[in-house]
Amino acid sequence: MTKHDDEHAELDRMHHDIVAPKYDELIVDPRQTLNDVIFKRVAKRLPARGRSMLDLGAGTGHMAIRFGRGYDRVMLVDHSRGMLEQARRNTAGVKSDLRFEVTDALGFVGKCDDRFDLITCVGFLHHLRADQLQFVFSNLMRLLEPDGRILLAEPVATPRTEPKAIQWWNRTSLPKFEQYVQLAPMPDEAPLNLQLLKDVYAEFGFATAYERRGWEVFSHFGGSSIDKLVIPVLDFLFGAEGVVWVGLLEKTVKPSGGPQSFLQT
User: Fold this and answer.
1) How far is CA 51 from CA 13, 40, 112, in A?
2) Average pLDDT over residues 190-198
3) Phi, psi of 2 (to 5 degrees)
4) CATH number at residue 148
5) How far apart are CA 62 and CA 184, in angstroms?
6) Model confidence at 253, in pLDDT bands (50, 70, 90)?
7) DSSP sequence for 2-64
8) For 125-177, what is each residue's pLDDT tens digit?
């Protein structure tokens, strides 16, 4: 990793350590209604049970909460101790064997020798350069069981502007995100180039089993019946070229060899 990478990673870790106590309230909860719609569709495409799950860039544990009950063992990895402490509290009702690893995700995938039936990466990959994406997917090929799945959800670049109907609906949520930004310095980051991401994971033998795009549509009434009625409609009408991409990957080839390195020095 370069000096700039180290500085960015440290700023990101510090940011998430500071915001961890408020993260669910300001970031996760406003997205809950739409996320329920999205991930219920994903769940239908996953096996009912599995042996092991890896949540890479686990944050406060919302992927483990959604899917962890279907797996005997769940590994949550994040470089922010504050976020994983919150994840530990959030996942107290998940009866699987939960393990929490405070470490750099790139180092983890390079050294891990376990195998997983489900690997989730949500809001993590857009922090990485192209060579780091190559490193991650070369190792995920090794870590994923032959019939396993990888679930991705990332912000992606789009030439479209947010539809006015969604802007209007989201207007009452803006103060929460302004409050979030004020909690701690934000690391520089940008949406992923979706075609680059697809080219990278295809290079290492993964195919898209399911994908969808959409705009962020925030709960207006605390997840009430009004939210549950309006948000799926807005998503259906306007989501086709939205800024959030969700993809479910499967293997197309069997892995060969050991861990590979594409990282710039």
Assistant:
1) 30, 20, 16
2) 95
3) -80, 170
4) 3.40.50.150
5) 22
6) low
7) -HHHHHHHHHHHHHHHHHHHHHIIIIIGGGHHHHHHHHHHHHTTS-S-EEEEEEET-TTSHHH
8) 998 999 999 999 999 999 999 999 999 999 999 999 999 999 999 999 888 88
| Residue that the structure tokens 């969604």 belong to | 166
Which is more confident, 253 or 74? 74
Q: Is the pTM of this model over 0.70?
A: yes
| Tokens linked to 94 | 């998940």
Q: Which amino acid is at 35?
A: N
> Which H/E stretch holds residue 119?
strand 116-122
Residue numbers of the domain that contains 108: 3-251
User: Which amino acid is present at 260?
Assistant: Q
**Band of pLDDT at residue 3, cut at 50, 70 and 90:** low
Nearest to 57 by CA among 97, 117, 89, 16: 16
Structure tokens at 136: 């991650």
Give the count of domains, the chain: 1
Give domain status of residue 257, yes or no.
no
